[in-house]
Write a structure and sequence with these properties.
Length: about 525
């Protein structure tokens, strides 16, 4: 299967309500008709498919400037433009190429094959199956899905285990699973172009980069040498976007039957693959355009890393670092954040209202313990004052902190030094339950605040109302969780003391708003 010519892109028309079909890459970029949206069984695979399409388009159809990019969004490519774009890399995207298969290495040495499910992040083996009920539930993959999961594993997963390197954004941390932040358009074709950066922006992040040079080839075309020491500044655009840190080789089934997912694509089915440990090193962070970065001060300088999801918190809690630039280029800054390339480009081009597709995995050491894939909308006006969005995020985070903290104290008990008595604690981990309830009950409110133009147009009034509603949710959750314990006289003092502390914190938050 060749990703440049064969039908492999799984879509439905009419925003998901139409019939399922597989498009060719040529159809997607060259045909005007069709309100296509990616359609796959898992949201993380849908985002990975979009990312793969964005990376392909970024490499082959790099727009010169904003005017060229706007034209690409408005008009399909001509057949001549498409053929010219794919010409330099016709043999790079063949999943079964005899010598340089897509995202693979020919001749991998392995004692035994690995089940194909290992490539689907979060569910492969042993106790690590966060997304499916059964180990081995996925027994085979069709060619289109195999291409997507190969790319996803290399770009967005942590290390495959001891002796294997993690994705390019992990730096020295083999367990980091990066967040991807894309700008969503009205349909699939527009979404792809919304996330393709102009040449000037690429060169600003990759000084000295030479397009189509012998040093900017995919790792399966120009393999990484064993024990090679690589400086991130020597990695070009194509090589970085399609970085494959592992030696893998799919095993094509000789006489396949029907396939579980994307049934029966040209009779190509994969049940297993071979993997081989491979050592090399990369120093520095490569400027990947699809991830946001954060920085903290260490040893008198800002140390940057790519954002990753926290297992117990929704995406909105990190929204400030995803879209607001802070501390970039400021040597005296105490902390910093840098949004993804598509978000920064959309803001610079005056997009105004912005719809974000945010996704990634939550890792605990070597295991995937969850995932976040969410749509977040920002209303027109958010970009006029960059301090407003962080303030809205902080109101929610501070309210949760107050609720969690006071119920934690209620669980542990207080020591009232004035009266020299110990206030007995509830003895239950109700603070953890409160945190989950807070996120569940406030998520709709918080997303509505972000997406409403009135929030930024009537800033003072809407911010106060928002703080009041958040505070009410906290009080309701506190009362709900402590009510069963209020029947015990010995616990009434600690509940009252905790409620008083919560009211003080929430009133302060409302006053500041």
């Amino acid at each position: 299967m060749n990703l440049l010519e064969d039908p492999w892109i799984p879509v439905r028309a009419d925003s998901g309500a139409g019939a399922f079909q597989l498009l060719t890459y040529r159809q997607l970029l060259c045909e005007l008709a069709g309100d296509w949206q990616i359609s796959l069984p898992r949201d993380d695979l849908e985002l990975a498919c979009l990312q793969l399409l964005v990376c392909m388009t970024q490499v082959m159809f790099l727009p010169e400037d904003d005017a060229a990019l706007r034209k690409r969004m408005a008009e399909p490519l001509t057949a001549e433009e498409f053929d010219a774009g794919i010409a330099p890399c016709r043999d790079w995207f063949d999943l079964d190429h005899p010598t340089q298969p897509f995202m693979q290495t020919r001749g991998v040495r392995a004692e035994k094959p690995t089940a194909i499910q290992k490539l689907l992040i979060g569910l492969p083996e042993g106790n690590n199956h966060a997304f499916f009920n059964e180990v081995g539930e996925i027994g085979k993959l069709s060619a289109p899905l195999a291409a997507v999961v190969l790319f996803n594993q290399a770009s967005n997963a942590n290390s495959m285990g001891g002796g294997f390197k993690g994705n390019l954004r992990g730096g020295t941390n083999p367990y980091l699973t990066p967040v991807n932040i894309f700008v969503a358009g009205r349909d699939l074709r527009e979404t792809i172009w919304e996330n393709v950066l102009t040449e000037s922006r690429v060169r600003a992040n990759l000084p000295g980069w030479e397009r189509w040079s012998s040093n900017d080839l995919p790792t399966w075309v120009k393999p990484i040498a064993a024990n090679e020491a690589i400086d991130s500044t020597d990695i070009g655009l194509c090589r970085g976007l399609f970085w494959q840190p592992a030696k893998l080789e799919l095993t094509l089934e000789a006489k396949p039957d029907s396939c579980d997912l994307l049934d029966g694509f040209q009779g190509q089915v994969y049940r297993s693959f071979k993997k081989e440990q491979f050592k090399f090193s990369v120093t520095g962070l490569w400027p990947h355009p699809h991830g946001a970065k954060t920085a903290s001060r260490k040893d008198e300088k800002l140390v940057w890393k790519y954002s990753s999801f926290r297992a117990d918190t929704p995406a909105w809690t990190q929204l400030s670092e995803f879209v607001v630039s802070r501390g970039v280029g400021d040597p005296d800054a105490k902390e910093g954040s840098e949004p993804s390339g598509p978000v920064a480009q959309a803001e610079a081009m005056g997009s105004g209202r912005m719809h974000l597709w945010v996704g990634g995995y939550c890792a605990k050491q070597g295991s995937i313990v969850g995932r976040r894939h969410e749509m977040i909308s920002l209303a027109h006006g958010w970009e006029d004052d960059k301090e407003r969005l962080p303030k809205l995020v902080n109101i929610g985070k501070e309210a949760k902190k107050a609720l969690y903290g006071k119920l934690l104290l209620a669980s542990n008990g207080y020591e009232n030094k004035k009266k020299k008595i110990k206030l007995k604690g509830i003895g239950a981990a109700i603070h953890e339950t409160a945190e989950k309830l807070f996120y569940a009950r406030t998520e709709s409110l918080i997303h509505t605040i972000f997406s409403s133009e009135a929030t930024f147009r009537e800033w003072g009034e809407k911010r106060r109302d928002y703080a009041g509603q958040i505070a009410k949710h906290c009080c309701d959750i506190f009362e709900e969780l402590t009510r069963p314990y209020a029947m015990k006289p010995e616990l009434i003092p600690v509940i009252a003391w905790s409620r008083r502390g919560l009211n003080v914190d929430l009133n302060k938050l409302k006053e500041e708003s």
